Amino acid sequence: MSFLTLQHISKKYGEFTAIEQIDLEIERGEFLSLLGPSGCGKTTTLQMIAGFVTPTSGKIMFDGRDITRERPEKRGMGVVFQSYALFPHMTVDDNVGFGLQMRSVKPAERRERVAQALDLVRLSGLGARYPKQLSGGQRQRVAIARALAMQPKLLLLDEPMSNLDAKLREEMHIELRSIQRSLGITTILVTHDQVEAMTMSDRIAVMHRGRITQISTPFEAYERPQTPFASSFLGKTNTLSGEVLVRNARCVEVEVAGLIFDVPHEGRSMKGRVNVYIRPEKVRLTDHEAVARTRGRIATCVFLGNQWLLEIETGLGKLSIARPNFGPPPPAEGEEVGVLWDDDDLRVLEVEVSRGHA
Prior knowledge:
20 strands, about 35% strand
Protein backbone atom coordinates (compact mmCIF):
# COMPACT_ATOMS: atom_id res chain seq x y z
CA MET A 1 0.00 0.00 0.00
CA SER A 2 1.22 3.52 -0.80
CA PHE A 3 2.28 5.82 2.03
CA LEU A 4 -0.47 8.34 1.17
CA THR A 5 -3.53 7.54 -0.93
CA LEU A 6 -6.36 9.80 -2.06
CA GLN A 7 -9.34 7.71 -3.19
CA HIS A 8 -12.05 9.41 -5.28
CA ILE A 9 -11.62 12.69 -3.37
CA SER A 10 -14.06 15.49 -4.21
CA LYS A 11 -14.75 18.85 -2.61
CA LYS A 12 -17.83 20.97 -3.28
CA TYR A 13 -18.78 24.39 -1.96
CA GLY A 14 -22.49 24.55 -2.64
CA GLU A 15 -22.90 24.16 -6.40
CA PHE A 16 -19.21 24.82 -7.08
CA THR A 17 -16.95 21.79 -7.51
CA ALA A 18 -13.41 22.67 -6.42
CA ILE A 19 -12.04 19.10 -6.65
CA GLU A 20 -13.57 16.34 -8.74
CA GLN A 21 -12.80 12.65 -8.19
CA ILE A 22 -9.06 12.82 -7.54
CA ASP A 23 -7.12 9.57 -7.17
CA LEU A 24 -3.49 9.88 -6.11
CA GLU A 25 -0.87 7.58 -4.59
CA ILE A 26 2.38 8.85 -3.07
CA GLU A 27 5.21 6.59 -1.96
CA ARG A 28 7.25 6.94 1.22
CA GLY A 29 10.16 9.33 0.71
CA GLU A 30 8.79 10.73 -2.57
CA PHE A 31 8.79 14.43 -3.51
CA LEU A 32 5.61 15.19 -5.46
CA SER A 33 4.45 18.56 -6.78
CA LEU A 34 0.85 19.60 -7.37
CA LEU A 35 1.30 21.95 -10.31
CA GLY A 36 -1.28 24.19 -11.91
CA PRO A 37 -2.64 27.72 -12.31
CA SER A 38 -4.55 29.66 -9.67
CA GLY A 39 -7.97 28.17 -9.03
CA CYS A 40 -7.14 24.66 -10.27
CA GLY A 41 -7.66 23.07 -6.83
CA LYS A 42 -4.07 22.31 -5.79
CA THR A 43 -4.19 24.23 -2.47
CA THR A 44 -7.60 22.75 -1.65
CA THR A 45 -6.10 19.30 -2.22
CA LEU A 46 -3.20 20.09 0.11
CA GLN A 47 -5.57 21.44 2.75
CA MET A 48 -7.63 18.24 2.64
CA ILE A 49 -4.45 16.19 3.14
CA ALA A 50 -3.45 18.44 6.06
CA GLY A 51 -6.93 18.26 7.60
CA PHE A 52 -7.83 21.94 7.30
CA VAL A 53 -10.59 21.12 4.80
CA THR A 54 -12.89 18.08 4.93
CA PRO A 55 -13.61 16.29 1.63
CA THR A 56 -17.20 16.15 0.45
CA SER A 57 -16.62 12.56 -0.64
CA GLY A 58 -13.79 10.06 -0.89
CA LYS A 59 -11.14 8.74 1.48
CA ILE A 60 -7.60 9.72 2.51
CA MET A 61 -5.36 6.90 3.75
CA PHE A 62 -2.05 7.82 5.44
CA ASP A 63 0.55 5.34 6.65
CA GLY A 64 -2.04 2.58 6.87
CA ARG A 65 -4.89 4.48 8.54
CA ASP A 66 -7.95 6.42 7.43
CA ILE A 67 -7.41 10.11 8.25
CA THR A 68 -10.25 11.56 6.17
CA ARG A 69 -11.87 13.21 9.19
CA GLU A 70 -8.98 13.16 11.64
CA ARG A 71 -7.97 16.45 13.27
CA PRO A 72 -4.91 18.19 11.74
CA GLU A 73 -2.78 17.92 14.89
CA LYS A 74 -3.29 14.15 14.98
CA ARG A 75 -1.99 13.53 11.48
CA GLY A 76 1.75 13.89 12.05
CA MET A 77 2.30 16.35 9.20
CA GLY A 78 4.36 19.51 8.94
CA VAL A 79 3.06 22.47 6.93
CA VAL A 80 4.99 25.44 5.52
CA PHE A 81 2.72 28.25 4.34
CA GLN A 82 3.26 30.89 1.67
CA SER A 83 3.31 33.64 4.33
CA TYR A 84 5.69 31.65 6.62
CA ALA A 85 3.35 32.54 9.57
CA LEU A 86 6.20 33.38 11.96
CA PHE A 87 5.44 35.08 15.28
CA PRO A 88 7.11 38.53 15.08
CA HIS A 89 7.45 38.86 18.88
CA MET A 90 9.30 35.53 19.20
CA THR A 91 12.95 34.76 18.51
CA VAL A 92 13.98 32.24 15.88
CA ASP A 93 14.53 29.63 18.58
CA ASP A 94 11.09 30.24 20.05
CA ASN A 95 9.40 30.16 16.64
CA VAL A 96 11.03 26.86 15.74
CA GLY A 97 10.27 25.37 19.13
CA PHE A 98 6.70 26.62 19.43
CA GLY A 99 5.03 23.43 18.21
CA LEU A 100 7.24 21.33 20.45
CA GLN A 101 6.26 23.48 23.43
CA MET A 102 2.58 23.02 22.61
CA ARG A 103 3.17 19.27 22.68
CA SER A 104 4.84 19.55 26.08
CA VAL A 105 8.22 18.35 24.85
CA LYS A 106 10.74 18.70 27.69
CA PRO A 107 12.99 21.80 27.49
CA ALA A 108 16.25 19.87 27.03
CA GLU A 109 14.86 17.81 24.15
CA ARG A 110 13.18 20.89 22.72
CA ARG A 111 16.48 22.82 22.63
CA GLU A 112 18.21 19.87 20.98
CA ARG A 113 15.57 19.46 18.27
CA VAL A 114 15.49 23.22 17.59
CA ALA A 115 19.27 23.25 17.20
CA GLN A 116 19.18 20.26 14.86
CA ALA A 117 16.46 21.84 12.72
CA LEU A 118 18.31 25.16 12.45
CA ASP A 119 21.50 23.32 11.53
CA LEU A 120 19.65 21.51 8.73
CA VAL A 121 18.59 24.82 7.18
CA ARG A 122 21.99 26.47 7.82
CA LEU A 123 20.75 28.98 10.41
CA SER A 124 22.86 27.89 13.37
CA GLY A 125 23.81 30.87 15.51
CA LEU A 126 20.76 32.96 14.55
CA GLY A 127 18.41 31.57 17.19
CA ALA A 128 18.35 34.80 19.23
CA ARG A 129 17.23 36.98 16.30
CA TYR A 130 13.68 38.09 15.57
CA PRO A 131 11.95 37.61 12.17
CA LYS A 132 12.28 41.31 11.31
CA GLN A 133 16.07 40.94 11.57
CA LEU A 134 16.14 38.21 8.91
CA SER A 135 16.10 38.26 5.12
CA GLY A 136 13.21 36.74 3.19
CA GLY A 137 15.20 33.59 2.50
CA GLN A 138 16.16 33.26 6.16
CA ARG A 139 12.53 33.65 7.27
CA GLN A 140 11.56 30.91 4.87
CA ARG A 141 14.26 28.66 6.34
CA VAL A 142 12.90 29.33 9.84
CA ALA A 143 9.44 28.24 8.69
CA ILE A 144 10.92 25.04 7.22
CA ALA A 145 12.96 24.43 10.40
CA ARG A 146 9.80 24.83 12.51
CA ALA A 147 8.07 22.15 10.45
CA LEU A 148 11.08 19.82 10.53
CA ALA A 149 11.54 20.18 14.29
CA MET A 150 8.23 18.38 14.73
CA GLN A 151 9.75 15.37 12.93
CA PRO A 152 6.70 15.00 10.67
CA LYS A 153 6.02 11.91 8.60
CA LEU A 154 4.84 14.14 5.74
CA LEU A 155 5.96 17.68 4.82
CA LEU A 156 3.42 19.91 3.03
CA LEU A 157 4.67 23.04 1.24
CA ASP A 158 2.08 25.60 0.06
CA GLU A 159 3.93 27.83 -2.45
CA PRO A 160 6.59 28.65 0.17
CA MET A 161 8.94 30.35 -2.29
CA SER A 162 6.53 32.66 -4.11
CA ASN A 163 7.66 35.71 -2.08
CA LEU A 164 11.36 35.29 -2.91
CA ASP A 165 13.24 36.92 -5.77
CA ALA A 166 14.22 34.74 -8.73
CA LYS A 167 17.87 34.13 -7.74
CA LEU A 168 17.04 33.27 -4.11
CA ARG A 169 14.16 31.07 -5.23
CA GLU A 170 16.51 29.08 -7.45
CA GLU A 171 18.97 28.64 -4.57
CA MET A 172 16.18 27.48 -2.27
CA HIS A 173 15.03 24.89 -4.81
CA ILE A 174 18.41 23.20 -4.52
CA GLU A 175 18.60 23.70 -0.75
CA LEU A 176 15.18 22.29 0.04
CA ARG A 177 15.58 19.35 -2.32
CA SER A 178 18.89 18.53 -0.64
CA ILE A 179 17.27 18.62 2.83
CA GLN A 180 14.38 16.45 1.64
CA ARG A 181 16.73 13.83 0.21
CA SER A 182 18.99 13.79 3.27
CA LEU A 183 16.02 13.23 5.60
CA GLY A 184 14.08 10.97 3.25
CA ILE A 185 10.91 12.79 4.24
CA THR A 186 7.83 12.43 2.04
CA THR A 187 7.03 15.88 0.65
CA ILE A 188 4.18 17.46 -1.30
CA LEU A 189 4.71 20.88 -2.87
CA VAL A 190 1.94 23.12 -4.21
CA THR A 191 3.21 25.48 -6.91
CA HIS A 192 2.19 27.31 -10.07
CA ASP A 193 5.86 27.54 -11.16
CA GLN A 194 6.70 24.78 -13.64
CA VAL A 195 10.46 25.33 -13.27
CA GLU A 196 10.12 24.90 -9.50
CA ALA A 197 8.14 21.70 -9.94
CA MET A 198 10.55 20.21 -12.47
CA THR A 199 13.63 21.17 -10.45
CA MET A 200 12.52 19.61 -7.18
CA SER A 201 10.12 16.75 -7.88
CA ASP A 202 10.30 13.02 -8.35
CA ARG A 203 6.87 13.26 -9.95
CA ILE A 204 4.53 16.06 -10.99
CA ALA A 205 0.73 15.97 -10.78
CA VAL A 206 -0.56 18.54 -13.29
CA MET A 207 -3.91 19.95 -12.13
CA HIS A 208 -6.55 21.72 -14.20
CA ARG A 209 -10.13 22.63 -13.26
CA GLY A 210 -10.21 20.48 -10.14
CA ARG A 211 -8.76 17.38 -11.78
CA ILE A 212 -5.36 15.76 -12.13
CA THR A 213 -4.71 15.62 -15.87
CA GLN A 214 -1.27 13.98 -15.77
CA ILE A 215 1.03 12.35 -13.23
CA SER A 216 4.57 11.58 -14.34
CA THR A 217 8.24 12.39 -13.88
CA PRO A 218 9.31 15.94 -14.77
CA PHE A 219 10.98 14.68 -17.96
CA GLU A 220 7.92 12.73 -19.09
CA ALA A 221 5.57 15.59 -18.22
CA TYR A 222 7.60 18.03 -20.32
CA GLU A 223 8.53 15.76 -23.22
CA ARG A 224 5.30 13.73 -23.43
CA PRO A 225 2.36 15.84 -22.25
CA GLN A 226 -0.90 13.93 -22.24
CA THR A 227 -3.28 16.89 -22.67
CA PRO A 228 -3.19 20.18 -24.57
CA PHE A 229 -3.30 21.99 -21.22
CA ALA A 230 -0.24 20.14 -19.89
CA SER A 231 1.62 20.85 -23.11
CA SER A 232 1.04 24.59 -22.91
CA PHE A 233 1.40 24.97 -19.13
CA LEU A 234 4.68 23.08 -18.81
CA GLY A 235 6.91 25.56 -20.58
CA LYS A 236 6.61 27.30 -23.93
CA THR A 237 5.45 25.38 -26.98
CA ASN A 238 4.54 25.97 -30.60
CA THR A 239 1.01 24.82 -31.41
CA LEU A 240 0.08 24.00 -35.00
CA SER A 241 -3.42 23.03 -36.15
CA GLY A 242 -3.61 20.03 -38.46
CA GLU A 243 -5.64 17.13 -39.83
CA VAL A 244 -4.82 13.43 -39.51
CA LEU A 245 -4.45 11.73 -42.88
CA VAL A 246 -3.12 8.24 -42.10
CA ARG A 247 -2.25 6.35 -38.89
CA ASN A 248 0.31 3.52 -38.90
CA ALA A 249 1.93 1.50 -36.12
CA ARG A 250 4.16 4.31 -34.83
CA CYS A 251 3.19 7.61 -36.43
CA VAL A 252 0.32 9.57 -37.85
CA GLU A 253 0.60 11.59 -41.01
CA VAL A 254 -0.69 15.06 -40.22
CA GLU A 255 -1.27 17.81 -42.76
CA VAL A 256 -0.45 21.28 -41.43
CA ALA A 257 -0.92 24.17 -43.87
CA GLY A 258 -0.06 21.93 -46.83
CA LEU A 259 2.97 20.27 -45.23
CA ILE A 260 2.98 16.62 -44.15
CA PHE A 261 4.43 15.68 -40.74
CA ASP A 262 5.07 12.14 -39.49
CA VAL A 263 4.28 12.54 -35.80
CA PRO A 264 4.69 9.78 -33.15
CA HIS A 265 1.25 9.02 -31.72
CA GLU A 266 2.57 7.11 -28.65
CA GLY A 267 -0.30 4.63 -28.79
CA ARG A 268 -3.09 7.20 -28.81
CA SER A 269 -6.09 6.89 -31.07
CA MET A 270 -5.88 9.77 -33.54
CA LYS A 271 -8.30 11.04 -36.14
CA GLY A 272 -9.73 14.29 -37.44
CA ARG A 273 -8.56 17.66 -36.19
CA VAL A 274 -5.45 17.62 -34.02
CA ASN A 275 -2.86 19.98 -32.61
CA VAL A 276 0.81 19.35 -33.28
CA TYR A 277 3.25 20.66 -30.65
CA ILE A 278 6.97 21.32 -30.71
CA ARG A 279 9.10 23.00 -28.04
CA PRO A 280 11.02 26.14 -29.10
CA GLU A 281 14.39 24.54 -28.27
CA LYS A 282 13.64 21.71 -30.74
CA VAL A 283 13.26 24.12 -33.68
CA ARG A 284 16.46 25.17 -35.48
CA LEU A 285 17.57 27.62 -38.11
CA THR A 286 19.31 26.27 -41.22
CA ASP A 287 21.17 27.80 -44.17
CA HIS A 288 20.57 24.73 -46.32
CA GLU A 289 17.56 25.15 -48.55
CA ALA A 290 17.30 21.40 -49.22
CA VAL A 291 16.78 20.41 -45.57
CA ALA A 292 14.57 23.32 -44.44
CA ARG A 293 11.04 22.22 -43.56
CA THR A 294 9.74 25.74 -44.16
CA ARG A 295 11.02 29.26 -44.52
CA GLY A 296 10.15 32.47 -42.78
CA ARG A 297 11.21 35.93 -41.71
CA ILE A 298 12.60 36.81 -38.28
CA ALA A 299 10.03 39.07 -36.61
CA THR A 300 11.64 39.32 -33.15
CA CYS A 301 15.08 38.51 -31.78
CA VAL A 302 15.69 38.85 -28.02
CA PHE A 303 19.00 38.17 -26.20
CA LEU A 304 18.74 36.61 -22.72
CA GLY A 305 22.42 35.92 -22.02
CA ASN A 306 22.40 32.13 -22.15
CA GLN A 307 20.10 31.99 -25.16
CA TRP A 308 18.39 33.89 -27.96
CA LEU A 309 14.60 33.88 -28.32
CA LEU A 310 13.35 34.32 -31.88
CA GLU A 311 9.92 34.54 -33.44
CA ILE A 312 9.74 33.52 -37.09
CA GLU A 313 6.80 34.42 -39.33
CA THR A 314 6.17 31.36 -41.54
CA GLY A 315 3.44 29.87 -43.69
CA LEU A 316 2.60 27.62 -40.72
CA GLY A 317 2.12 30.63 -38.49
CA LYS A 318 4.49 32.22 -35.98
CA LEU A 319 7.16 29.83 -34.67
CA SER A 320 9.15 30.48 -31.49
CA ILE A 321 12.76 29.30 -31.37
CA ALA A 322 15.05 29.12 -28.34
CA ARG A 323 18.64 29.10 -29.59
CA PRO A 324 21.56 28.55 -27.17
CA ASN A 325 24.18 31.29 -27.07
CA PHE A 326 27.12 29.56 -28.71
CA GLY A 327 28.87 32.85 -29.50
CA PRO A 328 27.88 34.47 -32.82
CA PRO A 329 24.43 36.09 -32.82
CA PRO A 330 21.65 34.72 -35.07
CA PRO A 331 20.53 36.55 -38.22
CA ALA A 332 18.97 39.96 -37.61
CA GLU A 333 15.28 40.86 -37.46
CA GLY A 334 13.77 41.06 -40.94
CA GLU A 335 16.06 38.45 -42.49
CA GLU A 336 14.65 35.37 -44.23
CA VAL A 337 15.77 32.03 -42.80
CA GLY A 338 15.17 28.32 -43.18
CA VAL A 339 13.56 26.42 -40.30
CA LEU A 340 14.24 22.79 -39.42
CA TRP A 341 13.04 20.21 -36.87
CA ASP A 342 12.97 16.45 -36.40
CA ASP A 343 9.56 14.82 -36.66
CA ASP A 344 10.36 12.66 -33.62
CA ASP A 345 10.38 15.89 -31.56
CA LEU A 346 6.77 16.63 -32.54
CA ARG A 347 3.85 15.68 -30.29
CA VAL A 348 0.25 15.30 -31.38
CA LEU A 349 -2.97 15.49 -29.35
CA GLU A 350 -6.60 15.60 -30.37
CA VAL A 351 -8.24 18.99 -29.95
CA GLU A 352 -9.91 19.21 -26.53
CA VAL A 353 -13.65 19.70 -26.48
CA SER A 354 -14.41 22.51 -24.06
CA ARG A 355 -16.58 21.48 -21.13
CA GLY A 356 -17.88 23.47 -18.24
CA HIS A 357 -16.59 23.14 -14.70
CA ALA A 358 -19.12 23.87 -12.04
